[in-house]
């Protein structure tokens, strides 16, 4: 039995972590810490959490084995280091940090305390991504990867911490950019960055358009000072290129997440949709593989609403299995470094 504690009990914890953890046999949700525990504890009766806590020292002193961190982004490094130093394993929501040096120092603390520090890169655990990865594994040497996630109307809670640079670290790039950059980097072997270039901007309607599936009930108004769209290009050590296009709010008919991988032996591409958006009408997720040998393969997945939650279940199970000594193959602790590095270098390039 792995004893779990949660730091920050907001939208994603109630939407994904708690419902999934409640169905897992080998975990116990022991304690939840939140600075606003009274408000955060609404709707939690069904989970029978024994300790709803507003004192971080008391939380860290309990015998929980592992912590899930889902607070606003600017607190991730602080809570990660505190938890690791207290001997807890950590699964931290994205972005795990704002700088490469912060991730590296957290990894050193994890190593010194023999604890796991895992970035919550949930989309690696989607069924469609696992299939895509398999089909892209025979493309030879990878030359170019294109990733995009474009939403029609999907700014998560404009006017809250999510659209404030000091707290969120940035806008769409830190938010959904993190997810697709991680997926793109799975195919890039040499991750030393040679060049990074970014253009970004804020759509005029940004203050008003909020994602329908992530409504803002918060009364405070925090300055909206982040980008809503970003396009970037990163050249790596062996000249492979990652191209990136992300937007919270664009003039498109429906939301789409796309990935294309070009290698010396062929091309693989996929149109899908990450996250919890309800703005799609597609029936199928389509993966195409075209090899230089002339072989073509198309794989269709029926689109359904459980992809996102299933991926969270797989991620949490993987974290639990890793704590219990299973080999880590699909995601390792150092994967967090590269995504943060790319985002840091992209912002620096502007
Ligand atoms: N992987 C995904 O698909 C996904 C989706 C949404 C959010 N996220 C990430 O999860 C994290 C949380 O996002 P959210 O939308 O749930 O946010 P939220 O604002 O809904 O919840 C944050 C919670 O943290 C609490 N909190 C705020 N400051 C705190 C502090 N200093 N210490 C302790 N608790 C504090 C708040 O009271 C709130 O309950 C973010 O890092 C975000 O990027 C990931």
Fold and architecture overview:
There is one protein chain. This protein folds into two domains: 2-120, Rossmann fold; 124-304, 2-Layer Sandwich (Dihydrodipicolinate Reductase, domain 2). It has 350 residues and is of the alpha/beta class. The chain is built from ten helices and 14 strands. Helix 1 crosses helix 9 and helix 8 (173-185) crosses helix 10 (335-348). Helix content is 29%, strand content 26%. Strand 13 and strand 14 form a beta hairpin. The model has no long low-confidence stretch (mean pLDDT 94). Strands 8-9-10-7-11-12-13-14 form an eight-stranded mixed sheet, with helices on one face. The protein is globular and about 60 Å long. It has helices at residues 11-21, 37-40, 56-61, 76-85, 100-112, 127-136, 165-168, 173-185, 307-323, 335-348, and strands at 2-7, 27-33, 51-53, 66-69, 89-92, 117-119, 142-150, 193-201, 229-236, 241-247, 256-263, 266-272, 284-291, 296-302. Nicotinamide-adenine-dinucleotide (NAD) binds at residues 7-13, 34-36, 40, 70-73, 75, 93-94, 120, 122, 275.
């Amino acid at each position: 039995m792995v004893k779990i504690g949660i730091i920050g009990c907001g939208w994603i914890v109630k939407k994904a972590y708690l419902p999934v953890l409640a169905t897992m046999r080998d975990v116990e949700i022991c304690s939840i810490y939140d600075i606003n525990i009274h408000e955060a504890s609404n709707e939690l009766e069904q989970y029978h959490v024994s300790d709803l806590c507003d004192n971080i020292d008391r939380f860290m002193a309990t015998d929980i084995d592992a912590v899930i961190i889902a607070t606003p982004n600017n607190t991730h490094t602080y809570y990660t280091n505190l938890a690791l130093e207290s001997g807890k394993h950590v699964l931290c929501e994205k972005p795990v940090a704002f700088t490469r040096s912060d991730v590296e120092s957290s990894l050193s603390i994890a190593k010194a305390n023999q604890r796991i520090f895992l970035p919550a890169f949930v989309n690696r655990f989607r069924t469609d991504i696992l299939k895509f990865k398999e089909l892209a594994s025979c493309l030879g040497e990878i030359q170019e990867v294109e990733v995009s996630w474009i939403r029609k109307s999907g700014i998560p809670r404009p006017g809250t911490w999510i659209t404030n640079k000091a707290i969120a670290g940035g806008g769409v790039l830190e938010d959904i950019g993190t997810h697709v950059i991680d997926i793109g980097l799975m195919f890039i072997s040499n991750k030393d960055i040679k060049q990074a270039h970014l253009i970004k901007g804020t759509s005029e309607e940004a203050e008003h358009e909020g994602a329908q599936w992530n409504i803002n009930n918060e009364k405070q108004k925090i300055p909206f000072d982040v980008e809503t769209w970003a396009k970037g290009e990163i050249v790596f050590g062996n000249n492979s290129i990652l191209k990136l296009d992300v937007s919270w709010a664009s003039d498109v008919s429906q939301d789409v997440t796309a990935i294309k991988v070009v290698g010396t032996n062929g091309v693989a591409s996929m149109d899908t949709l990450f996250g919890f958006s309800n703005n799609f009408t597609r029936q199928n997720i389509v993966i195409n593989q075209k090899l230089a040998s002339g072989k073509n393969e198309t794989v269709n997945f029926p689109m359904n609403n459980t992809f996102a939650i299933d991926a969270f279940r797989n991620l949490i199970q993987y974290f639990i299995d890793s704590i219990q000594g299973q080999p880590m193959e699909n995601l390792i602790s150092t994967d967090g470094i590269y995504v943060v590095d790319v985002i840091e270098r992209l912002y620096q390039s502007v």
